[in-house]
Amino acid sequence: MTLHPTIETVTRRIRERSAPSRAAYLELIAAYGRRERGMDRLGCANIAHSVAGLPVNDKLRIVVERAPHIGIVNAYNDMLSAHAPLQHYPDLIKDEAHRLGATAQVAGGVPAMCDGVTQGTPAMDLSLFSRDVIAMATAVSLSHDVFDGALMLGVCDKIVPGLLIGALHFGHLPTVFVPAGPMTSGLSNNAKAKVREQAAQGLVGRAELLDAEMAAYHAPGTCTFYGTANSNQMLLEAMGLHVPGTAFVNPGQPLRHELTREAARTVLGRAGPQPAPCPPIGQVVDERAIVNAMVALLATGGSTNHLIHWVAVARSAGIVIDWQDFSALSEVVPLLARVYPNGSADVNQFQAAGGPGYVIRELLDAGLMHEDVLTVRPGGIREYTQLPEGDENHRLHWTPIGASADDSVLRPASDPFSATGGLKVLTGNLGRSVIKVSAVPEDRHVIEAPARVFDSQAALLEAFHSGSLDGDVVCVVRWQGPRANGMPELHKLTPPLAVLQGKGYRVALVTDGRMSGASGKVPAAIHLVPEALDGGPIAKVRDGDRIRLDSVAGTLQVLIDAAEWEARQPAQISRDQAIDSAHGLGRELFAGFRRNAMGAEEGACTWV
């Protein structure tokens, strides 16, 4: 299939823009790749330290037999349901490595926080920056420099981008990502959202709300909505960094365990009917792989958080992308999936309908993804269009997916839910922002209403509960950018705004903060740049200013006289708020991150 001209144009533009930084990156990883293996290069004391805790047989394999040695970077903790299954993965991996005459060692652990636990609390101010902490922890883990390949064990929101950023800074190593899969379906996401809205109105109490939440989040595995965590898994499949089809197999199944073993075989170059060496991750992640990930995100209505994270991921490989690239792709990439919040299905139903493999096949066949890319497997990206299965002896094989098993969840590229993707860039006199339109009702794609300005999400919630927000309104929440307070998700605002919308009011949100990957049905212009703390226009908005959010035209405007707008001075963050955003629950430790953070469109990177 001939590549769509827009895909080719965007890819070429990225390649040309990135030429100097990509060339420097490839030269660097090539130099590291040419060195002797770590165990032959390091001094005797260094080697002795690195193997001192290993069994004698492993020491002999590594030092005498010069066997391949895998480094495992694990984001396990049992605070996150999605990461709890990772506890025993290193044992499976080590056992499989031994079967193949190799060895494996846990190189290190990385932190992993749950935004579901911290939503609406001061701890959310650490969330975005935890991505860069994870990247640093990955680098520390691999810095012992004795490994011939690496396995990245992680699933959730900031964890996968952080692991990927860290791994790309060791781009000379073959690297495979290993997920844990989603929890089985519990209370439906729609039912859960309804109870939240009832609670916001005081129609049900804490006991009823807790019962609903516990029924929704009920078991080990990733949350079942298509938020940032599950979008991560879709993008890794589209980039060829997983064992094919491994994203959405539930934890605890024999197939899940065998796929984890297959990850060890893959990184060692022992997978498939015709094994071949696993290429270094820095070669796999090129501009074509990045575009493939962007296309997969748009085609599935994935998380807006990736308009920040994948900018940072690309930068780690010497590749420069921006929101205009996403916008251009969104104009030609059809929406193929309806998964909550842009549909009623959960990810288990998405998987049953055909899952990532169906999406990738449809995009490849339509010329909307690059097929001439490297992956961690010898069969290339076409391997990712098949479904993994295990026989009675748990041996893996892959089968064609066929047609969608549920066209209310997945549709072919020839008959999509929408001709364009699920994300849109907005520009105007308020700056640049993004909106997830795939979950917003069509009659809400354009909102024009007077502004109410808030300096915190708590102030907005207080206004809602007082009844003063009843009516058409554009809620403006500022001082929520990376440099102000770490750019927390404002997901707690979703239920009250949904209640107002449900009453028939024209409602929208405008903010320099983030919304959760699970948010959707209320129009929200988010990630606004420049942020208020940098003197962004959002700091000029006053109560009563009329704002027009037009996701059809791609504009976000304050409708006042241009000369008056130009002359208006931006508000300043209050001393009390600045102090409150910087102290308590460890936020003092992140002062350097806030000072160094780049803007949202530059990936909110703190390390460039």
Helix content: 25-40%
**Apparent shape:** globular
The number of distinct β-strands equals 14
Mean pLDDT: 95
GO molecular function, one term: 4 iron, 4 sulfur cluster binding
Function: Catalyzes the dehydration of 6-phospho-D-gluconate to 2-dehydro-3-deoxy-6-phospho-D-gluconate.
Pathway: Carbohydrate metabolism; Entner-Doudoroff pathway
Pfam families: ILV_EDD_C, ILVD_EDD_N
Tags for this entry?
Phosphogluconate dehydratase; Glucose Oxidase, domain 1; 608 residues; 39% helix; alpha/beta; globular; eight-stranded mixed sheet; iron; 13% strand; four-stranded parallel sheet; 3 domains
What does the model show?
This protein has 608 residues and is α/β, with parallel strands linked by helices. It has 3 domains: 5-35 and 68-184 and 219-400, no CATH class; 36-67, no CATH class; 423-602, 3-Layer(bba) Sandwich (Glucose Oxidase, domain 1). The chain is built from 24 helices and 14 strands. It has an 8-stranded mixed sheet. Strands 2-1-3-4 form a 4-stranded parallel sheet, sandwiched between helices. A hairpin with a 4-residue loop joins strand 13 (546-550) and strand 14 (555-558). Helix 8 (159-168) packs parallel to helix 15 and helix 9 (189-200) runs antiparallel to helix 10 (206-216). It is globular and about 75 Å long. The model has no long low-confidence stretch (mean pLDDT 95).
